[in-house]
Amino acid sequence: MNQQVPPNPNMPQNQPPNPPSAPANTAAGSGGNTIEITVRRESTGEETKLDVDMDATIGELKETLTEAGLMERDAAIYYKDKDLDDGMTFRKVGIQSGDVLQIGGSTVAGC
Question: What is the fold, at CATH topology level, of the domain defined by 2-106?
């Protein structure tokens, strides 16, 4: 099940927000800094597509997802099995349009 999340005013956006029933816009060929990513919840497999600015931070993404009720505040976000730090930007991590990020539970030994 795909959901659209309203944009966080703290995350710079190069595109207008998508109406809930419209498919997410992709940044391919737009020449801008916006990319479309998919965020998948480990616990349910539920996926959400988001347009994000390449210079936004993982912390800003977490804030947006927490406010939308899609993740717990203490959950981690993973990209290619790497736990991402809040201060990292999408650009620094190398995340590109079409990539999938995982939302995991809070970090607990043995999990």
Answer: Ubiquitin-like (UB roll) (3.10.20)
